[in-house]
Automatic annotation (TrEMBL):
UniProt-recorded name of the protein: Tetratricopeptide repeat protein
Lineage: superkingdom: Bacteria
SUPFAM superfamilies recorded: TPR-like (SSF48452)
Family annotation (InterPro entries): TPR-like_helical_dom_sf, TPR_rpt
C-alpha cells in the first residue's frame, strides 16, 4: 500500500541530557498517537524501550496515501515543533531533532517497507547532516525524500513553500536526492537574480561535453537539474542523459549507471536511457542484461516511430548493439539481420560500415576492411573524426582483427590512440 512515513529521531551529534530526551520521547509518542486517528499507526523501534531511547532510535508514524492523511501532516509538524521547544526550554543543553518525511510502500505491522527504510536512511545521512550545518541555526531539521517533496510539498499538501527547500545529493550521479527545509536558504533563494536559467546551463553543458570538458559540464548539468521543477519532464531527460555521458567518459561507470537508472525510473519510455544502459551492460560482459535493456529500447522506439534524424540514429544504435549482443551469444544469423536493419534505419551512419570492417579484419581481409573504413572516413567530417576514432579504437588492440583496423587508420594518416578516459572500460568490438 502506498503511504507516507514520518520518522523523528534525535540528532546523534547533539543528543542532549537523557531527561530531556525522555520528555521529548513521551511528547512525540503522544503527538504521533493523536495523528494516527487518520488511519495510520505510530511505531517505536522497540515497544519496551525507555522514552529517551525511543526518541534517539526513531519514532515512526505510518499513514496511508490520500488527501486525508496528508491533511494531518501540517498539524503534526507544529506539534513536533512545540514538543521540542518545551523539552529544550530553560534546561541547559538542548536536543537537536531530525524529522524525515518519505512516501512509498507501507507494509503491515512488523514488516519494514520502503518508506520506513527511506526515512531511516535520511536520518542517518552524513550529507543531510552536513547540509543542515550549513542552514540557519535550528534545533529541528526537516528533510524530505524526493518522492515526498515532488508529490506532497510541490503538490501544496503541506504548509511549506517548495522554494524553502534546498536539494541535497546523497550519492554519486543523480540517483539519490533529498530536500532539506531551510527557509530563506532554499532553491529559489539560493539561485539569486544572476544565476543562468536551467535551459542556458543545459545548452552550455552540451557545448562543454562536445569539447571534452566533462567535469565542468557535470557542474552545469547538476545546477540545471536543481533549477528544474522535477525530474519527470523532457528538459530533465536530456540533462540526465548528458550527465550520465559525462560520468561515463570520465570512467565513472557506476555514476553513469546510477544516473541513467534514475532517469528510467522517472521516464520509463526513454529509449535513449535503455540504449545507454544496454551498452554499458554489454561493456561489463553482462550480455543477457544488456539484451533486456536493448530489446526494450527498440520496442519503445518502434512503438512511437518518429521521422527524424535523431530517432534514426537511436534506432541504428540500438540495432547495432543488439547485433553485438547476438554475436556474443553465438546467434550469428540474427546478428547479421540486426546489422542489416541498422544500415537501413540510418543510411547516413558510418557505424554499420565500421562493424562490417571489423568482421573483415577478423577474417584478415585487409582489402575489404580498407575499403569499408575508407568509405566511413569519407562520410565523417573533420570535426567529428575525434569521436569517430574514439568509437572505433577503444580497446581495438586487444580484439581479434584490431591490429588490421589500426593499420588501416594509420595508412590514412590518423592517430588511432584512444583518448585517456576510454582506458577505464574498453568497449566490446563491433558485431
Amino acid at each position: 500500500m502506498d503511504g507516507v512515513c514520518v520518522t523523528a529521531g534525535v540528532d546523534g551529534r547533539a543528543p542532549g541530557p537523557a531527561a530531556v530526551r525522555a520528555r521529548l520521547g513521551t511528547a512525540l509518542a503522544a503527538a504521533f498517537g493523536a495523528a494516527s486517528r487518520f488511519g495510520g499507526r505510530p511505531v517505536h523501534e522497540a515497544a519496551s524501550e525507555p522514552a529517551d531511547e525511543a526518541a534517539a532510535h526513531g519514532v515512526h508514524l505510518l499513514l496511508p496515501g490520500g488527501a486525508d492523511s496528508a491533511a494531518v501532516l501540517p498539524r503534526l509538524l507544529r506539534e513536533v515543533r512545540a514538543a521540542l521547544d518545551e523539552a529544550n526550554r530553560g534546561r541547559g543543553p538542548g536536543v537537536r531533532l531530525r524529522l524525515a518525511l518519505a512516501r512509498g510502500l507501507v507494509l503491515p505491522p512488523g514488516i519494514a517497507g520502503h518508506a520506513v527504510a527511506e526515512c531511516l536512511r535520511l536520518l542517518d545521512s552524513e550529507a543531510v547532516g552536513a547540509a543542515a550545518d550549513g542552514a540557519p541555526a535550528t534545533d529541528l531539521t526537516v528533510v524530505a525524500s524526493d518522492s515526498f517533496f515532488q508529490s506532497v510539498v510541490v503538490g501544496g499538501l503541506l504548509e511549506h513553500r517548495p522554494e524553502d527547500y534546498r536539494p541535497v545529493r546523497l550519492g554519486r550521479g543523480a540517483l539519490s536526492v533529498a530536500w532539506l527545509h531551510a527557509p530563506g536558504r532554499g532553491a529559489a533563494a539560493a539561485s539569486g537574480p544572476s544565476r543562468p536559467p536551467a535551459g542556458e546551463l543545459a545548452a552550455r553543458a552540451g557545448l562543454l561535453l562536445g569539447r571534452g570538458e566533462y567535469r565542468q559540464a557535470i557542474l552545469d548539468l547538476e545546477e540545471a537539474l536543481r533549477l528544474l521543477p522535477g525530474a519527470d519532464g523532457p528538459d530533465a531527460e536530456e540533462s540526465l542523459l548528458r550527465l550520465g555521458d559525462c560520468h561515463r567518459r570520465l570512467g565513472d561507470v557506476e555514476a553513469a549507471a546510477q544516473t541513467w537508472t534514475f532517469l528510467l525510473a522517472r521516464r520509463p519510455l526513454c529509449a535513449a536511457a535503455c540504449q545507454r544502459l544496454g551498452r554499458l551492460e554489454l561493456e561489463r560482459n553482462h550480455t543477457h542484461r544488456a539484451l533486456v535493456y536493448l530489446t526494450e529500447g527498440l520496442r519503445l522506439v518502434r512503438a512511437r516511430p518518429e521521422p527524424s534524424a535523431k530517432a534514426a540514429r537511436l534506432t541504428c544504435a540500438l540495432l547495432l548493439d543488439l547485433s553485438c549482443v547476438r554475436s556474443a551469444l553465438g546467434d550469428l544469423a540474427v546478428a547479421d539481420a540486426f546489422l542489416n536493419e541498422a544500415a537501413e534505419a540510418d543510411p547516413r551512419s558510418v557505424l554499420p560500415l565500421v562493424s562490417l570492417a571489423f568482421r573483415a579484419a577478423r577474417r584478415r581481409d585487409l582489402q575489404t576492411a580498407r575499403r569499408l573504413l575508407g568509405t566511413a572516413l569519407i562520410r565523417v567530417s573533420g570535426e567529428d573524426r575525434k569521436d569517430f576514432l574514439r568509437e572505433v579504437c577503444t580497446g581495438a588492440a586487444s580484439w581479434e582483427g584490431g591490429d588490421v583496423i589500426i593499420k588501416v587508420l594509420q595508412e590514412n594518416g590518423l592517430d588511432p590512440t584512444p583518448s585517456p578516459w576510454t582506458t577505464h572500460a574498453p568497449r566490446p568490438p563491433p558485431a
